[in-house]
Design goal:
heterodimer, A: 195 residues, mainly beta, five-stranded antiparallel β-sheet, globular, B: 79 residues, mainly alpha, 3 helices
């Protein structure tokens, strides 16, 4: 207490499910996230998200990956006081096709020029945000996410996997913040009817 | 009944929060957005409001609405 303000980690007792349920990507320049002021020095989750001026929807693009084949990993490391969190998303995308090729091309362009933002809903129900750029109408330190290390192929046999495994990677100074809104909010930004 | 009011020019703007990303003129939870605007001081939210009541008034009204719903729910159960 005299040197640093620590925090307890005490969650309500109960199970928690692993794995990713849904993923949506966005151009980080398109969206502004709203975040309440810290309470007792503790950062709050994102509570709202809006398309920035000039954006004509849809601003979020849903990625339909193979069920049970989506994973987010993070790894913290430190050198002296310099903290780094390495984030990685790995998603299996079925079928080599023109659609997959052009999708990957778009990701490559985004990674080179603008970065890739993402909403990620876990099977546990929690939604997280990565690669965001604007918070409370101001830019935050750069959180660059890009496609790096994706791989794929045809397989050899009828029952081999035909498609690609997408890798999105990004380093940042912290772990991801949660988004408190419902997933229907993300679907709404994706222009999915009924949301 | 919402206390907060959105400026005409922003009625078609979409701010995604809670359970919807519908345009603001279709939302019935504008007071919740007003509370988020107060708590974040996000200029892009603050600018949307024609009428932005004080935070305490918004929270009090929300509590009363919730209590009203609870009372209505109880009376329905009794029937």
């Amino acid at each position: 207490m005299l040197c640093v303000t620590l925090k307890a980690y005490q969650r309500a007792c109960g199970g928690v499910t692993g794995g990713l349920s849904d993923l949506g990507i966005f151009d980080p320049t398109d969206l502004n996230f709203t975040q309440a002021a810290p309470i007792s020095g503790v950062a709050q989750p994102y509570t709202a998200v809006a398309e920035r001026a000039g954006v004509e929807g849809p601003s979020v693009f849903i990625i339909n990956f193979q069920v049970d084949e989506g994973e987010w990993t993070w790894k913290q490391s430190v050198t002296g006081c310099a903290v780094k969190y390495e984030h990685e998303l790995v998603l299996q995308l079925p079928e080599n096709s023109q659609l997959l090729t052009t999708f990957l091309q778009a990701l490559d362009a985004a990674g080179c020029c603008c970065s890739i933002g993402f909403f990620m809903r876990m099977n546990s129900g929690k939604t997280f945000v990565g690669g965001e750029k604007y918070v409370n109408a101001a830019s935050i330190p750069r959180f660059t996410v890009k496609q790096d290390g994706s791989e794929g192929g045809s397989g050899k046999l009828f029952d081999d996997f035909n498609g690609g495994t997408l890798h999105l990677k990004g380093n940042y100074s912290r772990n991801l913040y949660e988004f408190s809104g419902d997933w229907s909010v993300v679907e709404g930004l994706a222009g999915i009817a009924g949301s | 009944m919402n206390l907060a009011r959105i400026k005409k020019e922003y009625l078609n703007k979409r701010v995604a929060f809670g359970k919807s990303a519908a345009p603001l003129h279709k939302r019935d939870d504008l007071d919740d957005l007003a509370i988020l605007a107060h708590e974040s001081q996000d200029p892009s939210l603050l600018i949307l409001f024609d009428v932005l009541p004080p935070l305490a008034q918004l929270k009090k009204n929300r509590t009363e609405v919730q209590l009203g719903r609870a009372v209505a729910g109880n009376s329905q159960t009794k029937k």
